[in-house]
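input
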Amino acid sequence: MARPRRRIRADACALAMVLVAAAASLAGAPDEAAFLAENEAAMRAMMAGMTIEPSGDIDRDFVAMMVPHHEGAIAMAQAELRYGSNEQLRRLAQEIIVGQSQEVQVMRLAIARPSEPSAGPRPIPDRPHAAEDRR
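output
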């Protein structure tokens, strides 16, 4: 039996986007307004990219949602580098750019390869509902 197709949405990110937009309206300094505007644009692009039509391939769907999520983090980190002054946060932003870019490449490479044969789903010990899954 085929699963009904439905759009996958990340409501928590939508709430964050609303909060960023509200903060932008309260921004005082020109740099702060520009920073918040860039972050709002990054959030909008991320949310649009993360809304996918399920393909039936969990791995592809995971990558399809995670790539825009990572690209949003990269855009936000770039805004921190442009406008932020805290050196510790600027270093963190640089690490985010490098790390998230590498992870995007790894994910894209992983789905470009044919899937390896599997013996079925593997249990994930730290899942909150793992005990329920075994019933």
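quick obs: The helical segments are 11-26, 30-50, 58-83, 87-112, 130-133.
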